[in-house]
Amino acid sequence: MAELRYAEALNQALDEEMARDEGVILLGEDIGNYGGVFRVTKDLQEKYGKSRVRDTPISEQVIAGMAIGASMMGMKPVAEIMFADFLPLVIDALVNQASMMNYSWAGQVTIPFVLRTQGGAGAGAAAQHSKSLEAMVTHIPGIKVVMPTTPADAKGLLKSAIRDPNPVVFLEHKMLYNTKGEVPDGEHLVPIGKAKVVREGDDVTIVATSRMAILAEEAAELLAKDGISCEVIDPRTLRPLDVETIVASVEKTHRAIVVNEAWRFGGYGAEVAATIAEMAFDWLDAPVGRIGIHDLAIPFAKPLEAAAIPDAGRIAEAVRETLA
Amino acid sequence: MAELRYAEALNQALDEEMARDEGVILLGEDIGNYGGVFRVTKDLQEKYGKSRVRDTPISEQVIAGMAIGASMMGMKPVAEIMFADFLPLVIDALVNQASMMNYSWAGQVTIPFVLRTQGGAGAGAAAQHSKSLEAMVTHIPGIKVVMPTTPADAKGLLKSAIRDPNPVVFLEHKMLYNTKGEVPDGEHLVPIGKAKVVREGDDVTIVATSRMAILAEEAAELLAKDGISCEVIDPRTLRPLDVETIVASVEKTHRAIVVNEAWRFGGYGAEVAATIAEMAFDWLDAPVGRIGIHDLAIPFAKPLEAAAIPDAGRIAEAVRETLA
Amino acid sequence: MAKAAKTNRPTLDELKEMYVKMVVTRRMEEGLFPEHRAGNIRGPIHTCNGQEASAIGATAVLRKDDLVSTTHRGHGHMIGKGVPARGILAEIYGRETGLCRGRAGHMLMADLENGLLGTSAIVGGGPPYAVGQALAFQCQGSDRVAMSCFGDGAAQNGMVHEAMNVAGLWKLPVVFLCEHNMYGLTVPSSSQSPIADISDRAAGYDMPGVKVDGNDVVAVYQAAAEAVARARRGDGPTLLETKTYRMVGFSTTDIGGYQPEEEIAAWAKRDPIKRLREILGKDLKPKELDAMDAEAQGIVDDAYEFAKTSPETPLDDLYVPEYAEVEAAHG
Amino acid sequence: MAKAAKTNRPTLDELKEMYVKMVVTRRMEEGLFPEHRAGNIRGPIHTCNGQEASAIGATAVLRKDDLVSTTHRGHGHMIGKGVPARGILAEIYGRETGLCRGRAGHMLMADLENGLLGTSAIVGGGPPYAVGQALAFQCQGSDRVAMSCFGDGAAQNGMVHEAMNVAGLWKLPVVFLCEHNMYGLTVPSSSQSPIADISDRAAGYDMPGVKVDGNDVVAVYQAAAEAVARARRGDGPTLLETKTYRMVGFSTTDIGGYQPEEEIAAWAKRDPIKRLREILGKDLKPKELDAMDAEAQGIVDDAYEFAKTSPETPLDDLYVPEYAEVEAAHG
Ligand SMILES: Cc1ncc(C[n+]2csc(CCOP(=O)(O)OP(=O)(O)O)c2C)c(N)n1
Ligand SMILES: Cc1ncc(C[n+]2csc(CCOP(=O)(O)OP(=O)(O)O)c2C)c(N)n1
Ligand SMILES: [Mg+2]
Ligand SMILES: [Mg+2]
Predict the structure, then answer these.
(1) List of chain D residues whose C-beta atoms are within 8 Å of the C-beta of residue C193
(2) In this structure, how many other beta carbons lie within 10 angstroms of the beta carbon of residue D305?
(3) What is the b/e burial string over B191-211, where b = at least 16 CB atoms within 10 angstroms of the residue's CB?
(4) Other C-beta atoms lying within 10 Å of the C-beta of residue C262
(5) Chain C residues touching residue A142 (CB < 8 angstroms)
(6) What is the CATH class of C12-311?
């Protein structure tokens, strides 16, 4: 165990997997000599060479396409898309190519690549560099979508993602790279498809993804002072979703709030909320609450941006409302 | 009133709006001399000339980009993307450009273009030409999304879309182009943002989009024979959604089924189901049912494809289950 | 733009093999139209009628372990690469014995065994992953080559640009085969690109751009041989443009009317099969040529028979796991 | 690649105006770094330090009703196009008086009034809509011109390819200004493109490709004047490539270390402001030059003062209607 930053934990995962498997190669913009604009690929080009760690042109479509083609031929590419806001440029590759190959080609190939990116607001990066676009990838069958919150999960899930025979979209958060946590050394694998109960509680279940899971814990702390007991669940894997863990919790608490940093309308939170409302129907004592970022282009000015992003206060308020 | 095919109704809308407003121009692949692969732009190039009806290169990204730029400068472009499966290629233009300009630029510009496309399965066109990807556009703020089912709505909504000062994504269905219906002549405008109660009923509300609304009516016919009374609602506009009409119906029927041809997980149906479950919570006597296309790449072989697509039987079955 | 050198002349045996494959392609595709009209097969069907020399000549120089990826108009590349006509037709008929068990259909086939990997009907969607295949070969120190086939229309698509740029940059072992058949769907190439020759763009990616008569199978073979050899040597990609013509409509749903009669007539005179037959006629007797036609017809007849009598894909094929399985050791 | 003709020499007054604008840009941007370090402004800030001749020279030839669209590195284009420094800085400070009321921030500004429309920080995202603006002008029979600025890195992006192709095809009144500053973020252009000169690709779109010394404002002005005149005449687009150098890091978050010292030193000798000062020195007295520096500094000081003392954007700005309103008559 060592205390590592989230970015360092990811770097460690990449390093270990590259050492373990020669097929692992890295593709992306500024990931080589510079080590990535968020330092996730730091020192890896020096260690593994320019053939395995490649700075690409600013050509997102072919970055994704290359990951697909190379993975078909036995490599395990880990491609970085610098911002989740650029995911739209690779959705064709995901939904029209990667998603269908294993099924439509009747199992002749697997497509074991990982597409890493990072999203989220809070850095004053405005409308084109702050979005959470997970809904655009979680809708695609045949692709797994992972979204780690803690450094330990970041490492363990990335290692699992690299070893997975399916395409995995790996969603990081720019405001988490500097957060610290204990990370197990060496072979630490977090299974894809298992949610984590971050905090146990009885009165309400909060399902929250990525940075929102941390805010949900803060909200739970606040509420605990008033005797309100929250169970906080971090799905960690968005697709396939661990419905069982979530529904079991709601069967206990009878109430649920879903927090996802994306736009609320048509967001990933809608899937979680609809699923809870359906599967836990007989146990629910109140409508499932759903919180997202303000439903407009993300503004630049600090007060506007801050007001747009869900915070612990808003989560706590939603919990109080559901209990009212 | 005349009986027109859906494709003809769309053609009439384009024709009338082009006659009415010189700013309306058409952009797309094979829309000129050939009149569009689904014949929606038939004869319009001959009538309005090559400057206003332009065959573009096979460059979806710039088709959308041009619609944005031209609309900023006072034109009203109607761009055609041949298949909804190619929407991924224009999502960057929609989410990173069109979506933010009016708000982020503090109202200095409006972006009044229409992006027409068609989706849906049933024609044996397989995984890359059969998808329903509305979830990828309905998540985007600042953009309206319209999906007409009948020839009359196709005409009336397209005319409204062209006159709307916002970007509108207009989703047609390949299996509807040949369906016929009465279409009012001339100035027939269907308001964007208003759902249509297609059939009134008391026992259950079926919210169904596009071709699924027709199947829902068929299911309602079947069920009527057993004394089950279904209310069928066609939202027609997917964003902004007419929540009021839908919730009012569920307050009456106490039960709801949502039918959308897209993949169920993370699909547009999730938003509708979550909204009903939240807003009509106190009235619901059963979980909101949700039906989509089978959650895998759409297969080619006829029996497989047929089994993948929701049909009247499956809708009726879901209604029976919710009443059980 | 470099001229293809007149080296790498195909042997008589190679010419004969290409001839048979071209005729197989033609006959196989001709059979599809009546079958489509009769409702026995479905989906839009695109044929390469008139373009066989390009497809067969280019793929003839590939090894079995090389890859070819193609588009909606890919039957020639498949036959050229050695994919059995049986598997192709059974796929088009949606049968269990099809290359992809009927899941893919005619626009999306793949055949790993024979290096068809794969088909994409997203215009411009193939080159990015072909470049990825070539990247894998480069990383693996292998001398395999990936050939990426696409049309003149696709050349205007951004994905193709990105793919060619990175291939030129990294000197990847890929051959870009742009089959310039004068149309993208119904729109003439002159209304899609301001330049007549796509190969003129190759210099912008630091790779040779080679233009050949796409209806001359020998010329195509020679140019492709050079491009493949170059890629195999590690000297990087080539953009090979074959000038050819689509003798029939865009697909089975095409209502036609936009290809001028005179244009069709002029190209009919340059039919690539007729031309190869003439070349072969210098070495072979008419009877020998007829025997090759018969051989081709036999392959096609057998494949249709096979496809039509194969069982339909069972419904189970829909209810398979969404994901490839994670090996136990991995978790 | 055509050489820019030595015509269209800027007048002394024009040179003076460009000089002031270049200095305004430089001083304004220099002020941003300490302000960012102090936490007074936020978000990554990108400056065009060293590239002012390209930005100011190219935009100097535009009319007020022409449009310019730019990228994250757009301050020079803004100042060049007549956008007030006050509005730019107030936007960067997130104030109500900013060009976009603080909603856009430094990477996404627009100013309709002065023809800045707009800024996109999606690399390659600007050219497609600039081409659409030019399309509107063509449809409207107007002689307005759209100038689309982007970097050498952006040239590898598929959107830029699609935009240039259709512009060349339809002869749209657009000028593509590719500012080749040798880097795309931290990666040298030689690792992003296999060719050194992006303008070599222009022939592939049937448009002139012109390469000029981007640190020589006169050369840029002349080449841009020709390109704009051509577009205005209806003769279509030009790809104008300015060879220049980014003297500082990529942005305020850049940790540096990848631009070789000698490279920076060599380019420092070619500082475009110093060079223009020398040219002006032939006609003006040192005092006059100093006065221009002072004028520029005054503009910048005033703008900083304005920005810092402007009110913050009120929270109401978040709670505005999602859609532009439909006029009653419409439905
Ligand atoms: C991204 C995308 N846009 C449009 C289409 C529709 N479409 C299919 S084939 C085709 C024409 C392709 O032309 P070309 O590349 O020259 O190939 P050809 O059919 O001539 O072989 C078009 C527009 C598509 N399948 N994918
Ligand atoms: C589509 C996209 N990919 C990546 C980025 C991240 N990014 C921002 S600027 C930049 C480098 C751009 O290089 P260039 O076009 O040469 O412009 P310069 O910064 O040198 O002016 C990159 C990679 C982005 N903003 N958008
Ligand atoms: Mg073609
Ligand atoms: Mg640059």
Answers:
(1) 165, 169
(2) 12
(3) ebbbbbebbebebbbbbbbbb
(4) 8
(5) 322-323
(6) alpha beta
Q: How far is CA B5 from the centre of its chain?
A: 16
Cβ pair D127, D166 in contact under 8 A: no
Q: Which chains touch B (3 or more CB pairs under 8 A)?
A: A, C, D
Domain topology for B2-183: Rossmann fold (3.40.50)
pLDDT of C5 above 70: no
Kindly write down the DSSP assignment for every residue of C36-60, as one continuous string.
Answer: HHTTSS-S-----TT-HHHHHHHHT
- Residue B169 CA, chain-centre distance (Å), reads 8
| Amino acid code (one letter) for D303 | A
Helix axis angle, D217-233 relative to D52-59, nearest 10°? 30
Whole-angstrom distance, CA of residue A308 vs CA of residue A311:
9
Count of H-run helices and E-run strands, chain D: 10, 8
**Domain regions of chain A by residue span:** 2-183, 196-323
Residues of D in contact with C169 (CB under 8 A): 191-194
Cα A86 to ligand 2 centroid, rounded to whole Å: 11
Does residue A206 contact residue A256 with C-beta atoms inside 8 Å? yes
> Does B311 score more than 80 pLDDT?
yes
ipTM over 0.90: yes
Query: Tokens representing C86?
Result: 């049986």
Residues of B annotated catalytic, as ranges: 60, 129
Please tell me which residue of chain D has the smallest CA distance to A301: D94
Note the pLDDT of residue C267: 97
Amino acid occupying residue B247: V
Contacts of B160 (CB under 8 A, 6+ apart): B189, B190, B191, B192, D330, D331
Lookup: tokens for C51 = 């373009």
CATH number of A196-323: 3.40.50.920
For residue A250 the two structure tokens come to 């709601």
> Is residue A67 classed exposed, middle or buried when 0-12, 13-18 and 19+ CB atoms within 10 A define those classes?
buried
d(CA D42, CA D52): 23
* Structure-block tokens of residue B205: 């509300």
Average pLDDT over chain B, rounded to whole? 98
What is the arithmetic mean of pLDDT over C97-109? 97
* The two domains A2-183 and A196-323 share their CATH topology (first three levels equal): yes
pLDDT, position C8: 86
H-helix or E-strand spanning residue A293: strand A289-293
Distance from C-alpha of C83 to C-alpha of C96, rounded to nearest angstrom = 16
B29 lines ligand 1 (CB under 6 A): yes
All structural domains of chain C with their residue ranges: 12-311
Radius of gyration of chain B (CA): 19
> Using one digit for the tens of pLDDT, what is the confidence trace for B248-282?
999 999 999 999 999 999 999 999 999 999 999 99
- Nearest CB partner across the interface for D169, out of C166, C169, C194: C194
Distance CA A316, CA D166 (A): 53
DSSP D101: T
Of the candidates C157, C156, C150, C201, the one whose C-alpha atom is nearest the C-alpha of residue C176 is C150
